[in-house]
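Exercise: predict the structure of this protein bound to magnesium ion.
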Amino acid sequence: MKPYIVAIFNQKGGISKTTTSTNLAVCLAAHGKSVVVIDLDSQGDSTKSLGIDPNVRQGIYDLFIGAAKLEDVILPTRFEGLRVIPSTYSLAGIEIKLSELKDSQRTLSTIVSHASIDCDYIIIDCPPALGILPINALATADAVIIPVTATPYANDGLLRTLPSIKYVQEGLNKALLLQGVLFTIHDRHKAARKISDLIRARLGGTVYGAEIPRDNMVIEAAASRLPVCVYAPKSAAAQAHLDFTVEFLERHHKIAAKAGQELAPFPARPAAMDRLQGWRVELADHLAAPEQGGLAQQTSRLDRMLYGDRTTVERLHLALIHFFIDHRGVLAVFLALVALVGLMVIGAGVGGVRLLADAFGLS
Ligand SMILES: Nc1ncnc2c1ncn2[C@@H]1O[C@H](COP(=O)(O)OP(=O)(O)OP(=O)(O)O)[C@@H](O)[C@H]1O
Ligand SMILES: [Mg+2]
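Solution:
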C-alpha cells in the first residue's frame, strides 16, 4: 500500500518540529510499522538525532538534483523498521538549484511517487520559515502536523503557518489534510495554560489531547543523538510522545476508514513501550559513553575551521588574540606594562644620547 506521508511543519523555529518527527518515527517503528524519515532541514538535526552523521556522502539534496537514486541515499538506523533519507550540509544551496528547475514546488512529490518507497509511514521534518523546501513537503504530504509551543508568540507562528497550508491546499495539493496541532515544550504554569486553552477553544478537536511537557531529558537525549523515547522511555516527555503516537495512529485509522480503506491493527501501547525499552537496553554501551568522541570530533573540526592550515606561530598568535578578547582585564594590564616598558626604553634612550653627547663634548 502507498505510504501515509506526514509533514511536520511550523514556520516558527525551535518549537520541536525535529523532536516531534524523530520521536513519532521511532514510536511508530516501536508499533511495528515501517517508517522513513526525510530530513528536509540543512541543519540535519533529525539525521543526527537518529544517530547518522550529516557528513554522509549523499542525501536528499542528491535526490533533488537527480544525482543519486533512492537506494543510494536511504539509510537504516539502529531501530528496526526505521530508515532515514538524510540531510547533508549541501542542502543549504538547494533553493538556487531548484529555482532552475521547472515545477520546482513539486520536485519532492515527483521523486517520492516515482521511487515508490516501500514503507507504512513517511515523516518529513521541515525547516523553519517558508521556502521551497516546506512547500515541497506540503505538496507531497497526505497530512500535516503543526507543533506549537504555548508562548505569547504561538499565535504568530500559527497565523503564518495556516495560510501557507491553505495556499498549498488551494493549488499544489488539494488532498492535503491538517491532521492536528500538537502542544510541545509545554509548561505547566498559568500563562501557558491560558494560551493553550485559547488555541484549543479556537481549533477544537484539531488539537491533540496529548501535550509534550518541557523535560530536560529531551535535551540530554539530543546530546546523545537519540530520540528521548529511546534515551529515557519512562520520562514524562517520552510517555507523552507515546500517547501522541497512539492518538496519531487512531486518527489515521479513522481517516483511512472514511476513505474506505482498512488498515492493519496496531499493537497495544505496552508492547510498543517494551520495544522502546529493548532498544534502550541494546544501546546501553552507547549511553554509558555519551558523546565523548563526538564532542572531541566537533572541537577539532571547530579548530580546523578557526585555524585552517596555519603555521604554529600563526596559531599561537591567533590563540593569543582570542585569549585577550576573552580576558580584557589582562589585556589592559599587558598594555599598561608595554607602555611602561616603552617609556623606560625611551628614557634610557634619551639618557644614553645625553651620555654620548657629553662624551663627545657636544652638549
Ligand atoms: N519537550 C521538550 N522539553 C525540553 N526541551 C525540548 C523539548 N522539545 C524540544 N526541546 C528542545 O528545544 C530545542 C528545539 O527543538 P527542535 O530542534 O526539535 O525544534 P525545531 O522546531 O525542529 O527547531 P528548528 O526550527 O531549528 O528546526 C532543542 O534544543 C530541543 O532539544
Ligand atoms: Mg528542526
